[in-house]
């Protein structure tokens, strides 16, 4: 039993260290905006956040042990079986599901809602236990783009699509389109607000454009014979290729302007304070201060463009100016 | 700097806080040479490569590559060199083939040429079966071969290779060795670090040894007074084998 206890203890420690899904929310613009500005409309937003969060949290803790290592350990068959039974309880979500089951028995929540939550959890748990990682192959096919930055843009698109920010924005965008198709009467301003929310959901990524490249990627960028603005442009192109289509069915000019502002403000922390990000988590911005500045700039740009569409050109100019300036700054950065 | 040198440095020094990683290094490597830069782990080999390729700024001293000052002409130097960095510098979200296509596009190689060179390199390095594998899913050997192919594809004037033969199978290592010998015959300068002395002995034309950041030997292979391994053990570090009594003793 001692070695089993040692393995479970080590698993628990590794799992706690990797449990970054909730921590990543703290520096996320979308979360900040919902906390500070949208308290009243929070229910729907938090439901979306909860659903998007639930999936990556539903991983099997046993995944932390490399398969080859587990096979090499001198464990008896009964110890393997016991480990299989005990390990799911290291994941707090198992306790949450169990707690909800008790609530369901007490008729506090419906069986249907419990079934939905438990189903999402079970799907995430089982998928994470498969010998191949479906997340690795998700979104891999990408179109080609003209120009020498093609492969960089494709790579950057794959990076964005491996963050939860994108899925949050996608659900928001699809919800609004659903309302539109259903013919639900909505005030015009609602489209502007939803557009802003969609870009807000993506905006933290603009603060950490190099967060998923890893140390090897950053070294490669420094070796490529490209100007700093070209490296940033490849990042920005991927961001805009995601943000603009998601806002097209709502208020496209507002979406383009807000996305340009998100990038214009985000370049500074992305270049000067690159922060490593984790795949399949919400992106964490450089700081709450940076997030607030970004949110205010985007909100001001969105409301002004809604009244005076030509202001979108000012946003584009701000983005281009930032691209040029921080491209130069990027060229100056070297390893410490 | 010495005329005709493709890699030169004078009093190159790099400090990290109180420790000196590279101390007062002065070198001249002529065109077409294969220079092996040897030393134990932590001796300053990778730091030197990083300073020569512009990845790391020196604390003091000067470096020139292809006759250009590294500090002042970084972009132009990047266009002329191929590098296999210590951490390989691969992107998890690109396949082996996409890495090579990216390299061709970024270094201004014509698209048809890039395609042809990609196919040739993948074939030569036995990477064809993994051409559509993402770097994140590649074995260490495949990743190293990809980074090596990326260094060769733009047809550089100088190659910097940080431990190119480690984690490589013997057949591919031989192919890489012959490719390097071939490019050197065409005037390309190769600067490599390695711990595999038998491989170095077969390929290098110049040997530089470094210990605790300071150069302790610099000559052509012909000028070595004894075998490379013996000379390395004499100058750089002698292997001290300690007996671990508990190894192999009856278990308690």
Task: Please specify the SSE layout and strand pairing.
The complex is a heterodimer of chains A (336) and B (252).
Chain A: H1 2-18, H2 21-26, H3 29-36, H4 42-57, H5 67-72, H6 77-86, H7 92-105, H8 111-128, H9 134-137, H10 150-160, H11 164-182, H12 188-203, H13 214-223, H14 228-247, H15 252-272, H16 288-307, H17 312-332
Chain B: E1 5-16, E2 19-30, E3 34-38, H1 45-52, E4 60-65, E5 68-69, H2 74-80, E6 81-84, H3 96-106, H4 111-124, H5 140-152, E7 158-162, H6 170-185, E8 189-193, H7 197-203, E9 206-211, E10 214-220, H8 228-235
Structure description:
The complex is a heterodimer of chains A (336) and B (252). With 336 residues, chain A is mostly helical. Chain A folds into 2 domains: 2-129, no CATH class; 151-332, no CATH class. Chain A is 71% helix and 0% strand. Chain A has helices at 2-18, 21-26, 29-36, 42-57, 67-72, 77-86, 92-105, 111-128, 134-137, 150-160, 164-182, 188-203, 214-223, 228-247, 252-272, 288-307, 312-332. In chain A, helix 12 runs antiparallel to helix 16. With 252 residues, chain B is α/β, with parallel strands linked by helices. Chain B has one domain: P-loop containing nucleotide triphosphate hydrolases (Rossmann fold), CATH 3.40.50.300. Chain B is 33% helix and 25% strand. Chain B has 8 helices and 10 strands. Chain B has helices at residues 45-52, 74-80, 96-106, 111-124, 140-152, 170-185, 197-203, 228-235, and strands at 5-16, 19-30, 34-38, 60-65, 68-69, 81-84, 158-162, 189-193, 206-211, 214-220. In chain B, helix 3 (96-106) packs across helix 4 (111-124) and helix 3 (96-106) runs parallel beside helix 5 (140-152).
List keywords for this structure.
heterodimer, A: 336 residues, mainly alpha, 2 domains, 17 helices, 71% helix, B: 252 residues, alpha/beta, Rossmann fold, four-stranded antiparallel beta sheet, 8 helices, 33% helix, globular
Task: Give a short synopsis of this structure.
The complex is a heterodimer of chains A (336) and B (252). With 336 residues, chain A is mainly alpha-helical.
């Amino acid at each position: 039993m001692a070695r089993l206890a040692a393995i479970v203890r080590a698993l628990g420690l590794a799992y706690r260290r990797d449990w970054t899904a909730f921590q990543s929310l703290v520096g996320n613009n979308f979360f900040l905006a919902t906390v500070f500005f949208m308290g009243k409309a929070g229910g729907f937003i938090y439901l979306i956040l909860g659903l998007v969060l639930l999936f990556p949290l539903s991983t099997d803790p046993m995944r932390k042990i490399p398969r080859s290592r587990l096979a090499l350990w001198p464990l008896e068959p009964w110890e393997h079986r016991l480990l299989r039974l005990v390990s799911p309880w290291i994941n707090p979500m198992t306790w949450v599901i169990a707690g909800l089951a008790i609530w369901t028995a007490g008729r506090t929540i419906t069986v249907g809602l419990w079934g939905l939550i438990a189903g999402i959890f079970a799907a995430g748990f089982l998928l994470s236990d498969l010998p191949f990682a479906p997340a690795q192959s998700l979104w891999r096919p990408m179109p080609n783009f003209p120009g020498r930055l093609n492969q960089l843009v494709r790579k950057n698109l794959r990076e964005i699509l491996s963050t939860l920010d994108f899925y949050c924005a996608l659900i928001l965008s699809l919800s609004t389109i659903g309302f539109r198709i259903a013919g639900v009467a909505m005030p015009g301003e609602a489209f502007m607000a939803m557009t802003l929310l969609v870009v807000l959901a993506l905006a933290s990524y603009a603060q950490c454009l190099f967060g998923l490249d890893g140390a090897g990627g950053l070294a490669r960028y420094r070796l490529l014979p490209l100007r700093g603005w070209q490296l940033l442009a490849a990042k920005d192109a991927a961001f805009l290729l995601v943000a603009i289509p998601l806002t097209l069915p709502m208020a496209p000019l507002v979406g383009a302007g807000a996305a340009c502002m998100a990038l214009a403000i985000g370049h500074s922390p992305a270049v000067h304070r690159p922060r490593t990000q984790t795949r399949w988590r919400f992106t964490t911005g450089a700081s709450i201060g940076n997030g607030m500045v970004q949110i205010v700039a985007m909100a001001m740009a969105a409301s002004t463009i809604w009244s005076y569409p030509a202001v979108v050109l000012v946003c584009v100019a701000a983005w281009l100016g930032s691209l040029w300036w921080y491209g130069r700054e990027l060229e100056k950065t070297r390893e410490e | 700097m010495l005329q005709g040198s493709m890699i030169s440095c004078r009093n190159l020094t790099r400090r990290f806080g109180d420790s000196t990683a590279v101390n007062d290094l002065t070198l001249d490597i002529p065109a077409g040479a294969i220079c092996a830069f040897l030393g134990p782990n932590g001796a300053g080999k990778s730091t030197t490569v990083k300073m020569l390729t512009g990845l790391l700024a020196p604390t003091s001293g000067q470096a020139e590559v292809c006759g250009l000052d590294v500090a002042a002409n970084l972009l132009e130097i990047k266009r002329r060199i191929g590098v296999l960095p210590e951490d390989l510098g691969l992107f998890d979200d690109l396949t082996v083939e996409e890495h090579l296509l990216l390299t061709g596009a970024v270094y201004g190689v014509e698209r048809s040429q890039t395609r042809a060179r990609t196919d040739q390199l993948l074939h030569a390095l036995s990477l064809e079966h993994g051409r559509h594998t993402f770097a994140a899913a590649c074995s260490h050997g495949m990743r190293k071969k990809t980074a090596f192919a990326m260094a060769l594809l733009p047809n550089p004037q100088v190659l910097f290779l940080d431990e190119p033969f480690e984690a490589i199978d013997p057949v591919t290592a031989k192919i890489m060795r012959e490719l390097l010998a071939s490019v050197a015959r065409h005037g390309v300068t190769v600067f490599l670090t390695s711990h595999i002395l038998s491989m170095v002995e077969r390929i290098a034309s110049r040997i530089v040894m470094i210990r605790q950041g300071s150069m302790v030997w610099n000559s052509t292979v012909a000028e070595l007074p004894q075998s490379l391994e013996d000379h390395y053990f004499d100058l750089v570090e002698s292997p001290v084998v300690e007996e671990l009594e508990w190894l192999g003793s009856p278990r308690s």
